[in-house]
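Key idea: predict the complex, not the pieces.
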Amino acid sequence: MKVRIVNPLGRYLCRRLIHGVFIICTIVVINFLLLQLAPGDVVDVLAGEAGVATPEYLANLRHKFGLDKPVLVQLGLYLKNIAMLDLGYSFRHNSPVLTLIVDRLAPTLILMVTAFVIALVIGTFLGVLAARWVNTWRDTVVTVFALVCYASPIFWIGLMLIIVFSIKLDWLPTSGIETVGAFNTGFDYVLDVAHHLVLPTITLALFYLAVYARMARASMLEVFQMDYVTTARMKGLREGRVVYKHVLPNALLPVLTMAGMQVSSMLGGSVIVEALFGWPGLGLLAFDSLFARDFNLLLGIFVLSSALVVVVNIIVDVLYSVLDRRIELR
Amino acid sequence: MKEFWRLYSKNIGGVLGLAFIVLVVVMAAIASLLYPTGPFTLTGSSYAQPFHDIFPLGTDSLGRDVAAGIVWGARVSLLVGFTTTLIAVFIGVVVGCLAGYFGGVIDSVLMRFTEIFQTIPSFIFGIVLVAIMSPSLYSIVIAIAVVTWPAVARLVRGEFLALRNREFVIAAVAMGMSNIRIILTQILPNALSPIIVISSLMVATAILFEAGLSFLGLGDPNVMSWGFMIGAGRNAIRTAWWNSTFPGVAILLTVLAINLIGEGLNDALNPKLRDK
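Result:
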């Protein structure tokens, strides 16, 4: 029997989900190939941890883990495991990879969401400012600021912020998510975390702020030339009203599209920011696993972050169609 | 060419950027004359203050000259920036040409493939690739090229789709030209200007990418690079701010200059967009 989904949104979601699953499967296969390429296997790691191991013992272990089977069989096993959300075991941390990742997800999401909101709000605001007073000193200041932020390596911006705000002024902490040994609870704890969040957030946000400011400026200037804006001005509306009620809502759409595409890049940025500020999220976990040569963990993060991007992309597309009724879901 | 230069020189930022990059290239080229002993030699006491004596930019924890590191680091940044861009643009152009010209099944297969590469967070992918191949200039260049080509492929495909059904291409088909000849001699030259612009921006991306990898400790251990210097100076940030600051300024100015060149090229090559 054929199931017919009449609702266009439902049909669209279905298609996108199938497509997303296809993408994730391919990434898992790539992931498996990368694991094969990685120097040493689980058994080598185990033997290294144990200190002593005879060749017979190693062969026995390899047999137990199925590592002596043909590569294709191993791939099948691996796919089966991933489908059951088993991302393998981190021998370094003595814990399943999935547990480790889930534990670290919240700090990363807090960091990314805060940085994203700040970048979007301030970036758009600066873009509007520049477009409203185009070719004046305000425009120049915003443009130069955006160009500089756009060209700076984010870890360097972070270090400069640390020098100024932590070392010279001593206002903000340099690392971690909470004051060690303070054991704050309730509201004090939230304040403490927020205090630690300031520098990492600004560091991560500045680059995207620059991107959105440039984008918003260009998009505003384009909308300013449309006929309906002239009509609004002809009606005698105040300039502020024209800018915020008539131009901005339409100019925002391209900025939002851009923002949706940046989730994947922001995940990369958070690796650097977390490594720099010791923010205990996924990025720091990835950074630590690099030096522990814990490839199971590193590739687990790799797969899950890709999956996160797929999910966010679908959400953004749906949101986008809700915001702009002209777009049909196909 | 003269006409191009006339258009390009109208953009002050582009001219300044070009001048700066020429300076960096010269600096990198004569690095062995300026600091013949290389960037790793211990030249003086550790943590010498900048703007004093013989070390204009100070020294680091081991007494290595920061200025020497910056001059030698320019080589690495430029080398990585340009080779990576060459490789990534080559892959991107090949994939984009095939997808845009032939369309149909080839197009959808290639675009699915491209989409997968665009979904994976590129910096994390880069880290994984370098970690698995073990850090060296080689693996860094390959990793950055592998994660950055999709942008070029999509751009080239778009250009080819737009040009594919134009009269001059149809005429070439009617004349019995081979596909390869049409792609190389008819369509590609007409799609060249956006490819040049995106290439210039990719050099900047690659330099930032390399700096990020080196900062995380994934740089080539045998060469001095700006990202590595920032990362190494990080531990002594309280005592010696200059160790991390100056290499960062070098990256910032170089990337800024390349971005300005990109804008200048865009203005000169797309006269219609200039007033935007």
